[in-house]
Write a structure and sequence with these properties.
Elements: H1 2-10, H2 19-36, E1 46-49, E2 57-65, E3 69-80, E4 89-95, H3 96-104, H4 108-112, E5 117-120, E6 124-130, E7 139-153, E8 170-178, E9 192-203, E10 211-213, H5 222-245, E11 251-253, H6 254-283, H7 288-313, H8 320-323, H9 332-338, H10 343-352, H11 360-381, H12 396-421, H13 427-457, H14 460-487, H15 494-498, H16 508-513, E12 527-530, E13 533-536
Parallel strand pairs: 11-13
Antiparallel strand pairs: 1-9, 2-8, 3-7, 3-9, 4-5, 4-8, 6-7, 9-10, 12-13
Length: about 550
């Protein structure tokens, strides 16, 4: 990866050797894929725990169980050294009705009273073994404990629960705690622990034989969604590829390729997640690399859609005399919008010049948008790496993504307003831009709106499916709209009649090919060559 970046920095894009940059970009992309697919050992049901007076409990795992079913759990605990006082060491099981209250209750003893089940933990001496903890050497005494239990859903009325709970899909939370640590100072004697968990969703069947599944109940229906998303995204990508193939030997605008890449990434995200789910059903933890790639592809698709919307809103693909100067050439917002009017050319210029010349602003803006989405996807995986939680509002990266969408939406509206208010924008195009502004803004704010609705109006066990379906619908609608925008005929709208996407070198566009793009006097290439095909960047 470092090598491909250095190669990109030193490649000079010129008419004599434009294929060098394309080769470098392809090499960089393949390097990223190889890096992401490197062997990784990861399992959500394995981890470490250490109890103390300040942290008297440790949550091991949460698992959703189907209605009229049960959870069968097998926990193996390993203690590095003797756990001297096990009298109040317990495994407690909670459900989603009480979990929020449990997390807000300060005392361990009060939390334990809300548990559906309490199981004593007793360690047995296994022997002395090599200490495999980080930074540790030599031998250590190993103690082990095994807990096997079944939780019925709905849970039976036991303890303080005198009424039968509703039969519905339900999350169960498994935690170990030692409430004696609140009273006595044992911190110096508390050993480190690690755990390995195997948990099954046990469903009834018509034959009477139970069905054992590793797949959690909140993934019900997600498989169908992924298949539909794969087929739909693949169809759009093929449609755009046909448009590209029909122009071989002629000219095609890079916007078509960007949207095609967004559709392909969305489809690849669904494909990787489908394969991960299939593996998960057999081994209980799936394939970490495929699940990670699914998140990254989804983030790339989101960032490309956002970047294209911002660029079109800022006047990209429209003739220079239509875009005009907006609300003032010296305004800081206007300068920002100029940075995304030609994202492909700006990125190319930034890479080829090593950031030393040209329109650095546009390239940096584009890179920030892309890496912000990918970074948030990776950050979200540190909270839950079993299945994609990219859009979840339950953790900080999900909330940060929603805020990013809102901010980008405001920038988008500003850009559209500048195009409408400056230059010689025809009345017919103004009408189109008004509708485009509403549609684009709905894309940026719909996902935060869906997430807020799901997080406040729906029950906890319904949120995962609802959020996935809502996010998929938003992304599918945006990809379909952009596909129409770039392959529609000249009579489809006022935008299609003026846009450079559906035109060849006419009018002021001929001049654009030999002049700088984005202003500021910087000169950079406005075309790539793919064989005999000219890819327009203006």
């Amino acid at each position: 990866s470092v090598g491909c970046i250095l190669h990109l920095i030193h490649v000079h894009v010129a008419a004599k050797a434009p294929h060098n940059t394309m080769t470098a970009l392809l090499a960089c992309f393949l390097s990223v894929l190889l890096l992401a697919s490197a062997p990784v050992t990861a399992k959500i049901s394995s981890g470490k725990a250490h109890l103390s007076g300040a942290n008297t409990e440790s949550t091991l795992i949460k698992f959703p169980v189907s209605a009229s079913s049960s959870a069968k759990i097998d926990i193996n605990l390993t203690s590095y050294g003797m756990y001297e006082d096990e009298q109040q060491l317990r495994l407690h099981v909670y459900d989603d009705e009480d979990w929020r209250k449990v997390t807000r209750t300060p005392l361990c003893t009060d939390k334990a009273q809300m548990a559906l089940q309490a199981i004593p933990i007793v360690f047995d001496f296994k022997g002395k073994e090599r200490d495999d903890r980080s930074g540790k050497k030599g031998l250590v005494e190993i103690y082990t404990a095994r807990i096997q239990t079944t939780m019925q859903n709905p849970p039976p009325p036991v303890g303080r629960f005198r009424r039968q709970k509703k039969d519905r899909p339900r999350y169960f939370y498994f935690a170990i705690d030692d409430c004696s640590l609140e009273k006595y100072d044992h911190d110096g004697k508390m050993p480190d622990m690690k755990y390995d968990i195997s948990i099954l969703n046990v469903r009834p069947s018509s034959s009477g034989e139970p069905i054992y599944e590793h797949l959690p109940a909140d993934e019900d229906g997600i498989g169908l969604l992924l298949v539909l998303s794969l087929v739909f995204s693949g169809a759009l990508a093929l449609l755009l590829f046909y448009k590209f193939a029909s122009t071989l030997g002629g000219e095609v605008h890079v916007a078509i390729l960007v949207v095609m890449a967004a559709c392909a990434c969305n489809g690849l995200s669904s494909l990787c997640e489908l394969i991960h789910r299939t593996i998960y059903q057999s081994n209980g933890y799936g394939n970490y690399q495929l699940d990670a790639l699914s998140s990254y592809f989804e983030a790339l698709s989101d960032s490309m859609v956002a970047l294209v919307l911002l660029s079109i809103g800022g006047g990209w693909t429209l003739p220079t005399d239509v875009v005009g100067g907006g609300i003032g050439k010296e305004a800081s917002v206007n300068k920002l919008m100029k940075g995304v009017r030609n994202p492909a050319g700006s990125l190319l210029d930034l890479i080829s010049s090593g950031g030393g010349s040209g329109d650095r602003k546009g390239g940096i803006v584009a890179l920030v948008i892309i890496f912000a989405h990918v970074g948030l996807a990776q950050w979200g995986r540190t909270f839950d790496d079993d299945f994609d939680t990219y859009h979840a509002l339950e953790h900080p990266p999900g909330r940060a993504l929603m805020m990013l969408r809102v901010v980008l939406g405001l920038v988008f509206i500003t850009g559209v307003g500048m195009v409408r208010s400056g230059g010689k924008c025809p009345p017919s195009l103004m009408s189109f831009l008004t509708r485009f502004a509403l549609v684009g803004l709905s894309y940026f704010v719909s996902l935060p709106a869906v997430s807020m609705f799901v997080g406040t109006a729906l029950h906890y066990h319904q949120r995962h499916q609802a959020l996935h379906w809502g996010a998929a619908l938003v992304q599918a609608s945006s990809l379909a709209s952009l596909t129409w925008l770039f392959i529609g005929g000249a009579d489809s709208s006022a935008y299609h009649r003026l846009s450079r996407v559906s035109k060849h070198t006419e009018g002021d566009m001929t001049a654009d090919l030999s002049s700088s793009v984005g202003g500021g006097g910087s000169s950079r290439p406005t075309t790539w060559r793919f064989g005999r095909t000219k890819i327009r960047l203006d």
